[in-house]
Design goal:
CATH architecture of the largest domain: Alpha-Beta Barrel
Oligomer: single chain
Number of strands: 17
Structural class: alpha/beta
Number of helices: 23
CATH class of the largest domain: Alpha Beta
CATH superfamily of the largest domain: Glycosidases
Largest sheet: 8 strands, parallel
CATH topology of the largest domain: TIM Barrel
Number of domains: 3
Radius of gyration: 30 Å
Shape: globular
């Protein structure tokens, strides 16, 4: 027995050694294979050409006596002579519109009005004018206004105010006859992606939209940006929502300037915040989660087969809608990505597809909205575009909002289909400001133009220009002023686009910049993406960098390829347009990070030299400066990711330290600027991606500070992980 034990022990040792060596061999082979995969997948970056000269829009000198108006009038005839504006206007108007006229003169012309003595301003109703139309005559001895309705009167005084501010107390003799092309000219502001404006800011927003002659505003609500009385425990500790009382106050403030505040809340998809609450998690279509694009954990859509889902929706309506007097309500119902994928998969098959599940829910909700709350329901049109067979069964009182945010979106085709079915439609282009920092100017203009053209061609109710806040709502409010101006101009007078002096209008009327800098500079800031690899959809690639931080380029490329393979399913457009969009990614150019930095730096410097006659002029300059810092941080980060394998340790450290300093400054300023216009709730979420990037930068700095052996080992491990992840993403 004593001799057997050593022999047995020896055999076990040999066996363990063989197993260990086999495992070591397999592991080494696997690592070697993954390193080969990495090398095969890695593509060296393209070197960017040096750019030393840039093309900027230059300020245009204004000739003496030149007059700019927003929107451009359909008819204007200049005469000879002038009228000197008195300090107090003696008015002759009917008693029913006198309060409106008096308030409009105070707001727009900074003049008081009384009825004593001979009138210097006469206002008369004229039923022959189109709705919201007016005729403004300035004579040497006074002012005459003819108006179709109260809105027409208000807009005539607004035009008078613009003329007055461009003079030295005297007004040129002229006659303007004007009316809108589209009856509904609206703006939808996202107050749910983290940024909820203060009441002072909301009032300023209404003032600006009234100046531009918008007549419809919606504040987009998902999650807890509205203070639902029945669900107080879900928001009162963490959020700073708009209350019902504040909505009522804002509605009255907007109505005084001819703007209708329309209630808006999402009631099917985009329910992430509700489904994250323990109280409602069982109402999810996919309670175990859903992989969006096969990569992202997502849980956003209600289970329409669960009666409790509709009870929740009804209570949300009961909480919100009584605070509004508008005859409309936007229930959204867009992007229910999981619908028919999990709990309702069998039901969807029985009904003939997920589109019919959507239709059933839509009909039930429409009954509630119409019969219980007396509203006409609006919904986004993406699901109708995806399942056009349901369009004939959509109740005729439902308004479909056809949305799309690329300049090539097929508004014409989609609006025609909606109108042919006998349904009312609204077109919804976008400001192109979100996920860009400073906009995408050319896309914005083309997007708005094609939307307005389709609306006019097919008799749509109007336009709802959307200003979203995806991914932290990082764009500052003045970035959206140029798109709002352009949307206002051509939705009122579509024919003005060919001779619209947009830069000068922005200078004179919107930014009130005596130096003539802000108009061209803000439009040019929306053109920095000309130096990116390709025309990214719905964002810039500089902004996209923040989504992935310092991710290895091989892994990043795999994610991009997966996104492109899944992307067509998200677009409710035809194959030709899908091919056109996908073709953008086929032959990417070099990412010109230094050109982006130099280009935007010069524009920020120009903006700092502006001379705006606005109370918040200093704040606007600071907002532009920090937006440019965000662009610079994104540009440096993207450059680092693309070149991390090519650069030496010293080159990488120089870049990393520059990024670290910039990230600290961006976050500090973003917090300060945010609180200048907005409530505190949501700020931490908005800062989270910056903090994640800063943490990644710190980790990378520590990695580069290690000794050569540890740094090399770390690089090997990173490449192995990246290759394995890329293979998994390709699964």
């Amino acid at each position: 027995m004593s001799e057997t034990r050593p022999v047995t022990t020896s055999r076990f040792r040999k066996l363990f050694t063989r197993i260990f060596l086999a495992l070591l061999f397999v592991t080494a082979s696997l690592i070697a294979s993954l390193l080969v995969v990495y090398e095969l997948r890695y593509t060296p970056p393209l070197a960017a050409p040096a750019v030393t000269e840039f093309s900027f829009s230059e300020p245009v000198p204004r000739p003496a006596g030149d007059l700019l108006l927003l929107p451009v009038p359909k008819e204007i005839n200049r005469g000879s002579g002038t009228f000197t504006m008195p300090q107090a206007l003696r008015v002759d108007a009917s008693a029913d519109i006198l309060p409106l006229l008096t308030d409009a003169l105070r707001r727009q012309v900074n003049r008081t009005a009384d009825e004593s003595g001979g009138a210097t301003l006469r206002a008369r109703s004229d039923n022959s004018l189109p709705p919201e139309g007016f005729r403004l005559r300035i004579r040497t001895n006074g002012i005459e206004i003819e108006y179709a309705d109260p809105a027409g009167l208000f807009y005539s005084v607004s035009a008078l105010g613009q003329i007055y501010r461009q003079g030295d107390g005297t007004l040129p003799v002229l006659e303007i006859t004007d009316w809108p092309d589209l009856p509904l000219r609206g703006v939808m502001l996202d107050i749910s992606r983290d940024k909820i404006p203060t009441m002072d800011t909301l009032h300023e927003i209404v003032d600006l939209l009234a100046l531009m002659r918008y007549n419809h505003i919606q504040l987009y609500v998902e999650g807890f940006s509205f203070a639902y009385p029945s669900f107080r425990e879900l928001w009162e500790e963490t959020e700073t929502p708009v209350t019902g009382e504040e909505m009522q106050q804002l509605e009255a403030y907007a109505a005084a300037q001819m703007i209708e505040l329309v209630p808006n809340q999402n009631l099917l998809g985009h329910m992430n915040s509700w489904l994250a609450a323990e109280r409602f998690e069982h109402l999810a279509e996919c309670p175990d989660g859903f992989l969006f694009l096969g990569l992202i954990e997502y849980n956003s859509t209600l289970d329409v087969s669960n009666p409790e889902s509709f009870e929740l929706v009804k209570q949300m309506n009961d909480d919100m809608l009584p605070w509004f007097s508008s005859r409309y309500f936007n229930a959204n119902l867009d992007e229910p990505f999981e619908l028919g994928q999990c709990n309702t998969r069998e039901l969807a098959a029985e009904r003939g597809g997920a589109g019919y599940l959507y239709l059933d829910f839509l009909k039930e909700l429409n009954t509630n909205v119409n019969e219980e709350h007396g509203r006409r329901m609006m919904i986004w049109g993406d699901i109708a575009a995806k399942y056009p067979q349901i369009i004939p069964e959509i109740p005729e009182n439902v308004i479909l909002i056809e949305w799309g945010y690329e300049s090539i979106h097929p508004f014409d085709e989609h609006v025609a289909r909606i109108r042919d079915a006998g349904l009312d439609a609204i077109v919804a282009p976008g400001t192109s400001s979100w996920t860009t920092f400073t906009g995408r100017t050319e896309n914005m203009m083309g997007n708005i133009e094609s939307a307005v053209d389709a609306a006019m061609k097919h008799g749509a109710l109007g336009m709802l220009l959307t200003d979203w806040g995806d991914l932290g709502h990082w764009q500052y409010w003045p970035v959206s002023w140029a798109p709002l101006t352009y949307g206002a101009a051509i939705s009122w007078n579509a024919g003005s686009r060919d001779h619209l002096r947009l830069e000068e209008i922005l200078n004179e009327i919107v930014f009130r910049d005596l130096a003539g800098i802000m108009g061209p500079s803000m439009l040019d800031l929306g053109r920095y993406n000309q130096f990116e690899e390709f025309a990214m959809v719905n964002m810039t690639t500089t902004m996209q960098t923040y989504l992935f931080g310092l991710m290895d380029p091989v892994m990043l490329s795999a994610i991009q390829n997966r996104f492109l393979s899944e992307f067509p399913d998200l677009l409710q457009v035809g194959d030709e347009l899908i091919e056109e969009i996908l073709s953008r990614f086929e032959n990417p150019g070099p990412y010109q990070h230094q050109a982006i930095i130099d280009y935007t730096s010069r524009l920020a410097e120009r903006v700092s030299e502006s001379s705006m006659d606005l109370d918040d002029r200093g704040l606007i300059i600071e907002e532009v400066a920090n937006a440019v810092r965000m662009i610079h941080l994104g540009a440096l980060t993207r450059h680092y990711v693309q070149w991390m394998r090519e650069y030496s340790r010293d080159e990488k450290m120089e870049l990393l330290l520059q990024m670290r300093e910039l990230s600290e400054m961006v976050m500090e300023e973003h917090e300060r600027l945010w609180l200048s216009r907005n409530r505190e709730g949501g700020l931490d979420r908005s800062l989270s991606e910056f903090k994640s990037l800063q943490s990644a930068i710190d980790d990378e700095i520590r990695h580069q500070q290690r000794g050569p052996v540890l740094r090399s080992m770390g690089n090997v491990i990173r490449r192995v992980i990246a290759a394995a992840a890329a293979l998994y993403i390709d699964r």
